[in-house]
Amino acid sequence: MSETDNKPTLGRKPLGLKRSVEAGEVKQTFSHGRTNKVVVEVKRRKLIGKPGEAAPAPEPTPVAPPPPVAAPVRPAPPPPPPSASHETRQEMQARLLREAEEQRLRLAEEARRREEEERARALEEERRRAEENRLAESQQAAAPVEPAAPAAAPAEPATDATPVPSEPAPAAAPAAVPPPRRFTPVASAPAPKRPEPALAAKKPAAQRDRKGGDERRGGKLTVTRALNEDEGARARSLAALKRAREKERRAHFAGQQQQREKQVRDVIVPEAITVQELANRMAEKGADLVKALFKLGMMVTVNQTIDQDTAELLVEEFGHNIQRVSASDIDIDTSADVDPEGSLKPRAPVVTIMGHVDHGKTSLLDALRGTDVVRGEAGGITQHIGAYQIKTKGGDLITFLDTPGHEAFTEMRARGAHVTDIVILVVAADDGIMPQTIEAINHTKAAGVPMIVAITKVDKHEANAQRIRERLLEHEVVVEAMSGEVQDVEVSAKTGAGLDELIEKILLQAEVMELQANPDRAAEATVIEAKLDKGKGPLASVLVTRGTLKVGDILVVGTHSGRVRAMLDDKGRQVKAAPPSLPVEVLGLGGVPMAGDTLTVVDSEARAREVAAYRQEKATAKRTAQAPASLENMFSALAAKQAVIEYPVVVKADVQGSTEAIVNALNRLSNDEIKLRVLASGVGAITESDVNLALASNAPIIGFNVRPNAKARELVERNKVRMKYFDVIYHLTEDIAKEMAGVWGPERIETVVGRAEVKEIFPAGKKDKAAGLLVLEGYIRKGIYARLTRNDVIVSKTVIASLRRFKDDVPEVRAGLECGVVLQDTNDIKPGDTLEVFDVEMRERTL
């Protein structure tokens, strides 16, 4: 190097061979022509080797890497001094960067080699330990077991610690002692306790041996140590043990499932069933059935309905047996269920009291019961079917049903005749045979039940019992006094005369009939009356026909299902069981049933829900079938509805029988020109939904023995909805008939009073025309209605505005005379037309 190169730069001393910092100069340029020179120092990375190893020095040219342990320490060659020129400094910086990169690569290669050597050394150590353990176990198995084995046990670690001649310990760690072997203690000799401290003392030595004597990193757990250390030296975590046990349990359970045989089931399949319901009956997964249907080319979901043939394919696919049933098989058929003769026992007779209104039916029942029911009925007439059971002086039980006598309760009387054993026909001795009496006779004959004629009010002076017997002959009712088979008795509810004789004849008739029922079976009953109680919910008065109804029984009645929560007898007492012929009030129904429905006890809630759902579907289908089937029929029905005046009403009553009677009575008020339409009918108090429905349809609400609740009353007052309250049914029908007549309007009656022929047409003023007429019939009067026809076709309807004879105004012109008229609001008049005049009378309508 030249002398110039060795000159100091920026006051620095010349750099020697062992310099660790190199300097350079960088010129910085700023705004406004300012510049600055900055000295840049480049420091080399200081390499620190492990103890016993020399740090390799960088060389200007790449050479082969020296051995990791025996590398000689060489001083780094002195770099050339920095040149003053700009190009020399750039070359120097590039060279320094290149040397630094080479040094980094060389160090990385050395670290990789050291790591491989350590890994190989660790594997060799593992193999040596395994060989020592194997030799020790083989020696122990070959050695005879002596009684003094416990005394010789402490000498075993010394034998284990002896190195194997074929595999000497590595020279790098001559003082390292291998850990003791692990062995299984023999039953006759207990395991020694002394090797444990030896193991604790030798394990750090083995670590130092594997790490090349680096004591600083002895306690630090690295990835290499965690992977290469003996697994026996580390304890398993609690989570690992849990996972292993869970894996064994699953494997055991899976083996049991595979060994278990598939259970073949008899699957009952109706005509239509959902995929999920079919899966439930097969005890299979719904997703599996959907997959099977996908393979068959049917894209369905678990909620879709499939037919019976498709369900059969699925049942056979899964290895089950199918039992086809029709939709009618779902319903309960009680006709096929006949009780055997040996299970029948005597039961109390069911007696229904029927007759005309106000003939003394309820008073007779009061006398028999010793109570007073008439005072509780509005207007002194029975509006509900009452069911009671009395006990006679001889201890016999008789069940009585009291039916209404008003004409509106025809169906209730028919229902009473169908559930009864004996009918007592009540006829007032002072009144005779009346329309409802004849109707009761017809119901009794249709039901095929025996009849007992009770002639009441015999205590009155105008009573004539013989005339009643004679009048009954007109309706083919021949009493015993007239040589017939029908029993008759004269009674007086007021004085009590004839009551004992009536009871004797009832018991005699029941004995002849040999009334029996099976009490030891699932109960069946007939709904006599049903209502919605505010506190108790849906209630049903039922008459048990066979079996014994118990609290807790699952039942289905009509379209509703439920469970018997409680039962009350006719006196309001709670009973636990109801034998045949006992009337009880049942709590726990899902809804208010229809009067006349059959109550049946079933074995499960699923069966009850299935039957109720099937009956609900049938009822819905029946209502749908009454709708117009085609578009043409729908338009014709709409046109007919527009031509007929509708009178909408909302009906709410206290019991189901009253609702039924009111709706039937109101429907009979309709005719061809005005039709009463019941928007909704129900049982219970008037609710908000009833008020909203009436408000939307501008309909009155008819309440029979019910009142609106608080919220409904507020809506009624706010929206001024019309409310009509009644407690006697014939008052209700009379009021609605009058209001319907008012809506219908007065009747328009036209009476033709004259006819005339148009002869000539004359102008009358600027716009009007006058017609010269010849009166053919009757007369023509000023202001009368007229109808102008041409070729028997009506041209216009008008009024005669002016009538003249010659030039004089006249009030009337008779037949055979000529006159001139001016018609109001019409000028379409031609010679030859006919003028028909008529009077209009508005008459009040009656329904």
Automatic annotation (TrEMBL):
One of its GO terms (cellular component) is cytosol. Residues 346-516 form the Tr-type G domain. One of its GO terms (molecular function) is GTPase activity. Residues 86-135, 206-218 have a biased composition (Basic and acidic residues). Residues 1-30, 48-221 are annotated as: Disordered. Keywords: Cytoplasm, GTP-binding, Initiation factor, Nucleotide-binding, Protein biosynthesis. It comes from the Bacteria. Residues 141-175, 183-204 have a biased composition (Low complexity). It is found in: Cytoplasm. Residues 57-83 have a biased composition (Pro residues). InterPro entries: EF-G-like_DII, IF2_assoc_dom_bac, IF2_II, IF2_N, P-loop_NTPase, Small_GTP-bd, T_Tr_GTP-bd_dom, TF_IF2_bacterial-like. Its main location: cytoplasm. GTP binds at residues 355-362, 402-406, 456-459. Belongs to the TRAFAC class translation factor GTPase superfamily. Classic translation factor GTPase family. IF-2 subfamily. One of the essential components for the initiation of protein synthesis. Protects formylmethionyl-tRNA from spontaneous hydrolysis and promotes its binding to the 30S ribosomal subunits. Also involved in the hydrolysis of GTP during the formation of the 70S ribosomal complex. This is Translation initiation factor IF-2. The gene is infB.
